[in-house]
Write a structure and sequence with these properties.
Helix 8 runs parallel beside helix 9. It is built from 14 helices and 37 strands. The chain has 717 residues and is α+β, with helices and mostly antiparallel strands. A hairpin with a 4-residue loop joins strand 1 and strand 2. This is Alpha-galactosidase. Keywords: Glycosidase, Hydrolase. Belongs to the glycosyl hydrolase. InterPro entries: Aldolase_TIM, Alpga-gal_N_sf, Alpha-glycosidase_related, GH, Glyco_hydro_36, Glyco_hydro_36_C, Glyco_hydro_36_N, Glyco_hydro_b.
Length: 717
């Protein structure tokens, strides 16, 4: 971080703002520059001291020149703040074009106004504080770029130093300003259950674009992630934002008429405004902003590097090849059928065996059992620990499915604690999947969830936990509560606390985050969980599209993918077992098929693929990812380049019709690789290629009706 003299690169923008405010032309404080690997982010406090303002955000050195974000024209019918690249705006600063923070006093008055107080830089973190002289509200704007990344983390710490309570009617975490002189091109991910992470693009010349969730969970409909580009340069500079919040959220993008697109990111306050008593404080969720000069693919790599940093030391544990029993037995779990599956899985080379839903008392279908987390003695007549010991004797780690935040109306827990469920006094409760939702913000409910999971992991030899969440919140109430509560915030805070406690006390356990598929994949969960379950849809071509979108926002170490026998819900064209294995190798390999019915030939093929995956999984986990084409294009592949640059893994799939391939004259499909030195030589089997050939022409692959996927491993000669 740097803090240079204030009278140079910012003079034009500072002069404009100072003129509008009727003050001196020199900036009041800053500029400050935060630097990443290939990115810098520069902010300054203009002379009037009413807000913090962006100077530039882009590659190193971008601040050395007139600010691309500044606006020097007139603002008829608007204020200077409505056009300025404000970092965090109250409704007094941006009264017409959208504020990040809206605060009400006890009398209902709004229009909080900032005055600059001080700035602190410590250990690479910038903290710039403003205060409202009328109410005493203080806001610390905090910034940090973690080492080795190109992602700027931003958050705001609010403190009420006044004598009266305040109410936050809107409490966004950040506003990001992106220069889009030719109009904005937005990329986002939409979806629904079984069709998550669908990548889409939108040209936004005017108006407002908004995505979010009101479900108390990030949700299937949209991912809390957005990319912004100038419409004239779709493969050039790209900016992205993502939110570290596992509750309700909103992202709003709106271009102004001067060529700047402002993106507001933060919580959606579905429970009403947040109460901030006198002397109270609140820290708003972290928002991360990423930049790349290499389009969406480059932006994806920036997110991957960041999420690997979030994983910390856990990244260096090999993700085990797992088997999950759900699609084979569903609720009909018993010791005999699970052991039969485990024996076959061990023969195939699987390393972890996960017993899914149906292992506990009262759980014969989705109408009972949730909340009563005791192994069913009828299903495990020799005892649960004896069963686990038999799994472990096969040299398999044992894993278990749980859904600890949900409760069945027929459970003993609900009979004893009906008040632990989200409900509104005198209103019926809406069941989803025949279950209710525990109010995790209630301390006794949170303690029950933590003690249940801590007890299971402490009593039994469990090395893998699949934490599911199969319904959103419907009734936003807590019976008997005397005041308005931030239920969403309390639920998320306790969820994260429980994850952190389990991580601390059971560091050997791998935790998979699932929410009816991919409804909980925000950055906060990426820091707490080891792996995500991105979708309940395991059909091959459907899953290809899901994983293509997922890898734009998430690193491969977070992608759990299974080989199953399922057909797609949306694209039911058949694909080979090889296709399914190569697809599942794109992240963390798993199997979910009923392998009892696989033929000896299928089992032998599966064992071969698992062996090959174990040879490359470190490259998958740690390698630099390049997305080639896509599921709706003639070529579709993912390239992983090892950190030392000596190995390249390419997973490729045929996405078109298979009939007729190989029967008529044709040339092979070419997969152009990325990031290779042109003068290097690469080997694949008996074939040798130059780096120039692989990047300019591409790796050849010939599809046939019997060959619809391929794994390439290239070594630098």
């Amino acid at each position: 971080m740097s803090d240079p003299a204030t009278g140079n690169i910012y003079e034009r923008a500072a002069a404009r703002n100072a003129t509008d405010a009727g003050e001196d032309t020199a900036p009041l404080a800053g500029p400050w520059t935060l630097r990443g690997v290939a990115t810098e982010y520069t902010v300054v406090v203009p002379a009037h001291g009413r807000w913090l303002e962006l100077v530039s955000w882009g590659p190193p050195g971008v601040a050395h020149g007139p600010s691309p974000a500044s606006y020097t024209g007139p603002t008829p019918f608007l204020t200077a703040g409505d056009f300025a690249p404000v970092e965090y705006a109250t409704d007094a600063v941006r009264p017409f074009t959208g504020a990040d923070l809206v605060v009400e006093t006890a009398t209902g008055d709004r229009r909080i106004s900032w005055r600059y107080q001080q700035a602190e830089t410590d250990g690479g973190q910038l903290r710039v504080t403003f205060a409202d002289p009328v109410t005493g509200l203080r806001a610390a704007h905090c910034y940090r770029i973690p080492a080795g990344t190109d992602v700027v983390e931003r958050w705001v710490e609010l403190t009420n130093t006044g004598d009266a309570p305040l109410r936050l009617a809107r409490a966004g975490s950040a506003g990001f300003c992106v220069p889009t002189p030719h109009g904005a091109r937005l990329s986002y991910q939409w979806g629904q259950w079984a069709q998550e992470f669908q990548l889409a693009h939108l040209d936004l010349g005017h108006g407002q674009f908004s995505i979010g969730s009101s479900q108390g969970v990030p949700g299937h409909s949209f991912v809390p992630w957005l990319a912004v580009q100038d419409r004239a340069e779709p493969d050039g500079p790209t900016w992205g934002v993502a939110l570290a919040w596992t509750g309700s959220w909103q992202i709003v993008a709106e271009p102004d008429t001067g060529g700047l697109t402002r993106v507001r990111v933060g919580r959606r306050l579905v429970d009403g405004g947040l109460e901030l008593p006198a002397g109270g404080g609140i820290t708003l969720p972290v928002v991360a902003g990423a930049h790349s000069d290499a389009g969406l693919a480059g932006l994806a790599r920036a997110w991957h590097r960041y999420q690997r940093q979030l994983a910390g030391d856990r990244l260096h544990r090999a993700r085990p090849v797992l088997y999950n029993s759900w699609e084979a037995t569903e609720f009909a779990v018993d010791a005999d059928n699970q052991l039969a599956l485990a024996r076959i899985a061990a023969e195939l080379g699987v390393e972890t065996f996960v017993v899914d839903d149906g292992w506990f008392i009262g759980r014969h279908d989705d109408r009972g059992g949730l909340g009563d987390w005791t192994p069913d003695p009828v299903k495990f007549p020799a005892g649960f620990d004896a069963f686990i010991a038999q799994i472990r004797a096969l040299d398999l780690t044992f894993g278990l499915w749980v859904e600890p935040e949900s409760i069945s109306p027929a459970s003993r827990l609900y009979a004893e604690h009906p008040d632990w469920v989200y409900a509104i006094d005198d209103r019926p409760i809406t069941p989803i999947r025949n279950q209710y939702l525990l109010d995790l913000g209630r301390p006794e409910a949170a303690e029950f969830v933590h003690s249940t999971l801590d007890g299971l992991l402490g009593r039994h030899d469990i090395g893998y936990l699949k934490w599911d969440f199969n319904r959103p919140r419907t009734e936003p109430g807590r019976p008997g509560a005397a005041t308005r509560l931030d239920l969403d915030g309390a639920h998320v805070a306790n969820l994260h606390r429980i994850y952190a406690a389990l991580r601390r006390d059971h560091p050997h356990v791998t935790i998979e985050a699932c929410a009816a598929g991919g409804a909980r994949t925000d950055l906060a969960m990426a820091a707490h969980a080891d792996v995500f379950w991105p979708s309940d849809n395991t059909g091959p071509l459907d899953r290809l599209a899901i994983q293509h979108g997922f890898l734009h926002a998430n690193a491969p170490h977070l992608l759990s993918s299974w080989v199953t026998d399922a057909v797609g819900l949306f694209d039911q064209r058949p694909r080979s077992l090889a296709f399914r294995f190569v697809l599942a190798m794109a992240g963390v390999l798993g199997i979910g098929a009923d392998i009892r019915h696989w033929t000896p030939r299928q089992r032998a093929e599966a064992a071969s693929w698992i062996g090959r995956y174990k040879q490359i999984r470190e490259v998958i986990t740690h390698g630099e990812v390049h997305l080639i084409g896509g599921p709706d294009q003639p070529r579709c592949a993912v390239q992983y380049t090892a950190p030392d640059g000596d190995t390249v893994v390419v997973l490729a799939w045929h996405t078109g019709r298979l009939d007729g391939n190989g029967l008529l004259p044709s040339r092979p499909v070419r997969l152009p690789l990325r990031g290779l030195a042109t003068d290097d030589t690469w080997r694949h089997g008996d074939d040798t290629y130059s780096g120039s050939h692989l990047t300019a022409v591409g790796l050849p692959v010939r599809w046939t009706a019997d060959h619809d996927a391929e794994l390439f491993v290239l070594h630098r000669a």
